Amino acid sequence: MVTETSALWGQQLREALLGAPLTSVEFVQDYVQLRFDGPVLTVITWPLVDLHEHEVRWGERGFRNELCSRIGEKVIRAEILPRDSLQLEFGDGAIFKVSLRDEDYRAAEAVRFESDPATWWVL
Q: Residue 93's domain spans which residues?
């Protein structure tokens, strides 16, 4: 079941990313990697950036600019909402979301998180 594992992984995500700045964004054909001075979040399910007044989705005009403009911003909230989403909130209030709903998966996994070379998990 996802809930117990998600709670543990949510804790690891918070420990690794809270206060960490986004240091780079790499677009690789049909997925994206967010780097945080060590930890790496590889996102396979198409994400969105929630700017509160509107959302910008993968493939929409401005998505790459909105995501890249978070470079240098620190993560102030990181959580996994089981069967809903993985969310990272940045210091400027923007929220990066990855759906964890079954119908949104494009592959066997939605995300892969590496906090260091020996510690990683997938959802």
A: 2-115
Q: What's the CATH code of the domain at 79?
A: 3.20.190
The identity of residue 33, as a single letter, is: Q
Q: CA-to-CA distance for 81 and 47, rounded, in angstroms? A: 15
Q: Which of 62, 47, 27 is nearest to 98 (CA)?
A: 47
Express each pLDDT in 40-90 by its tens digit.
Answer: 999 999 999 999 999 999 999 999 999 999 999 999 999 999 999 999 999
Helix (H) / strand (E) containing 32: strand 31-35
pTM: 0.92
Q: How far is CA 28 from CA 6, 24, 116, 119, in A?
A: 26, 13, 21, 22
Residue 120 lies in a domain: no
* Cα-Cα-Cα-Cα dihedral sign, residues 69, 51, 107, 112: positive
